Amino acid sequence: MEKERYGIIFSVTFLLALGIIMIFSTGSVDEEGPLASRLFLKHLSWMALSIGGLLAVSRIDYHFYQRHALKLLIAVFILLVIVLIPGVGYAAHGARRWLRAGPVGFQPSEFAKFALIIFFASFLTRRKERIKGFLATFLPAMLILALTAGLILKEPDLGTAGLICIVALVLFFVAGVRFSYLLGFGALSASLTYIILWPRFDYWQGRIQSFLNPWEDPQGGGYQIIQSLIALGRGGLGGVGFGASQQKLFFLPAARTDFLLAILGEEMGFLGTAFIVLLYTIFLYAGMSIARKAQDFFGFLLAFGFTFGIGLQAAINIAVVTASVPTKGLSLPFVSFGGSSLLFSMLSAGILLNISQRKAVVEDIPKWVGVQDVS
Question: What is residue 99's three-state secondary structure?
Answer without folding.
Answer: strand
